C-alpha cells in the first residue's frame, strides 16, 4: 500500500508537533491524545504577547502574537501532524501548515472550540458546551480528553497510599478549580463548598482529601482550609509536580467532589467509575443544576443580582455570537442524566459507571487521517 501523500515512507510514524501554552487543561488534552496515539512527538511551548488577540484576529495565519523565542523553534523539518488546543495556538498551527505547502501536507487537529472556521482544520475534536456545528471533519465527544490511565493511577497509588494511611476511611477527595466566568470561586463560595463537604463527611464518617489548582485564588484557598472540619489532608497547589497529590487522590479516593466549572476534572473523576458529586457554583440564571431542581439555592438580593461583574457575565453568556460562547452546563447535566455523576447535596448515593471511552474514538479519527489512499 502506498503511504499517504507527504508521509515519509520508511519512517514508520508521522512526525508530530504539540502546541502547548499556559492553560493546563488544554495542555492535558493535547498530551493525552498524543500519548494515546503512541507516536513520538515534540512539544512546542509557546508564549504570547498581550496584544495577541488583536493581531491574531486581524491577520489570521500569523506568528505576530508570539512572544519570546517561540518562533525560533518553528522551523523545518516540518511535521506531518500538529495537535493544538486554545484560541492562541490556532494561527500558529495554520502558519506552519502554510509554510510547509506544497512540499509537505501538514494535518491539523484542533481540540475544543476553533475560533476560525472548522474547515481550516483536518479534524476538530470538540465537546458539547461549544456547540460546534456538525461537519464531516468535526468529532463531538462527551467530555474533554485527559491523561488519566490505569498505569498512571497505579503509579500514583504507590506514591501516595502510605502518606494518607493515617486518615480514617472512606476518603472523599475534593478537587477544586477556580474562577471561570460566569462562575466565581471566592472565599464565600469556598466556605459553602466546605460546609457541604463537611456534612457529607459527617454522614459517611469519612476523611477529606483536598487539592486546589492553579486557578484557585489565595483568599479562597485560605477560606477553604479554615472551614474544613473533618479529618483531612489539604494540598494548596504549587508548581512542583512531585508535590501534587491529584493523581493519587484519583487513584485512592472512594468518592469525589468536583467544582463544576472544570470539565477536565469532572471527566477525570468520572473516568474512575467511582461516585462523583458536582458542586454547583452558579445561582439564578447561571445555576448549573437544571431549572426546577430541588437543590437550587435561594434567590439573592438586588445588590448581588445587579452587581457590575454579574451583569458583565450575563452579557458575555447571552450577547456574544453563539460560536464564541460556551455553556459547561450542557456537559454537567448530561453527566448527571446519564448516571456518571450527581449533584453535591442530593441524597442519592449510587455506584456510577465511567462514561464511554472518548479517547478511543479520537485516536481512531486521527489515525484515519494517515490511512493509505
Automatic annotation (TrEMBL):
Give the domain of life: Bacteria
Q: Which InterPro entries match?
A: Elm1-like
Pfam families on file: Mito_fiss_Elm1
PANTHER family under this entry? MITOCHONDRIAL FISSION PROTEIN ELM1, OS02G0535700 PROTEIN
Question: Could you tell me what this protein is called?
Answer: Nucleoside-diphosphate sugar epimerase
Naturally occurring in which organism (per UniProt): Hypericibacter adhaerens
Q: What is the lineage of its organism?
A: Bacteria, Pseudomonadati, Pseudomonadota, Alphaproteobacteria, Rhodospirillales
Amino acid at each position: 500500500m502506498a503511504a499517504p501523500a507527504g508521509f515519509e515512507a520508511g519512517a514508520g510514524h508521522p512526525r508530530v508537533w504539540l502546541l502547548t501554552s499556559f492553560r493546563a487543561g488544554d495542555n492535558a488534552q493535547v498530551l493525552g491524545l498524543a500519548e494515546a496515539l503512541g507516536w513520538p512527538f515534540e512539544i512546542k511551548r509557546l508564549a504570547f504577547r498581550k496584544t495577541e488577540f488583536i493581531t491574531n484576529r486581524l491577520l489570521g495565519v500569523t506568528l505576530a502574537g508570539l512572544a519570546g523565542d517561540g518562533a525560533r523553534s518553528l522551523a523545518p523539518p516540518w511535521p506531518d501532524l500538529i495537535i493544538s488546543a486554545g484560541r492562541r495556538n490556532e494561527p500558529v498551527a495554520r502558519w506552519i501548515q502554510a509554510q510547509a505547502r506544497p512540499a509537505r501536507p501538514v494535518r491539523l487537529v484542533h481540540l475544543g472550540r476553533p475560533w476560525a472556521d472548522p474547515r481550516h482544520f483536518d479534524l476538530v475534536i470538540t465537546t458539547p458546551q461549544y456547540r460546534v456545528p456538525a461537519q464531516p471533519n468535526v468529532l463531538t465527544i462527551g467530555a474533554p480528553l485527559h491523561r488519566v490511565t490505569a498505569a498512571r493511577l497505579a503509579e500514583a497509588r504507590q506514591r501516595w497510599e502510605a502518606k494518607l494511611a493515617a486518615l480514617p476511611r472512606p476518603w472523599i477527595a475534593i478537587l477544586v478549580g477556580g474562577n471561570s466566568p460566569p462562575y466565581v470561586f471566592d472565599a464565600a463560595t469556598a466556605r459553602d463548598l466546605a460546609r457541604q463537604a463537611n456534612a457529607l463527611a459527617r454522614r459517611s464518617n469519612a476523611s477529606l482529601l483536598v487539592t486546589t489548582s492553579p486557578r484557585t485564588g489565595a483568599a479562597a484557598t485560605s477560606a477553604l482550609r479554615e472551614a474544613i472540619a473533618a479529618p483531612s489532608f489539604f494540598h494548596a497547589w504549587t508548581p512542583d509536580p512531585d508535590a501534587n497529590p491529584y493523581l493519587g487522590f484519583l487513584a485512592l479516593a472512594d468518592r469525589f467532589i468536583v467544582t463544576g466549572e472544570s470539565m477536565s476534572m469532572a471527566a477525570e473523576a468520572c473516568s474512575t467509575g467511582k461516585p462523583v458529586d458536582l458542586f454547583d457554583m452558579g445561582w439564578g440564571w447561571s445555576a448549573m443544576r437544571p431549572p426546577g431542581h430541588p437543590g437550587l439555592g435561594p434567590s439573592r438580593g438586588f445588590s448581588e443580582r445587579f452587581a457590575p461583574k454579574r451583569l458583565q457575565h450575563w452579557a458575555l453568556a447571552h450577547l456574544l455570537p453563539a460560536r464564541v460562547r460556551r455553556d459547561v452546563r450542557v456537559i454537567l447535566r448530561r453527566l448527571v442524566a446519564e448516571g456518571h455523576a450527581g449533584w453535591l447535596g442530593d441524597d442519592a448515593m449510587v455506584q456510577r459507571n465511567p462514561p464511554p471511552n472518548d479517547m478511543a474514538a479520537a485516536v481512531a479519527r486521527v489515525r484515519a487521517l494517515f490511512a493509505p489512499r
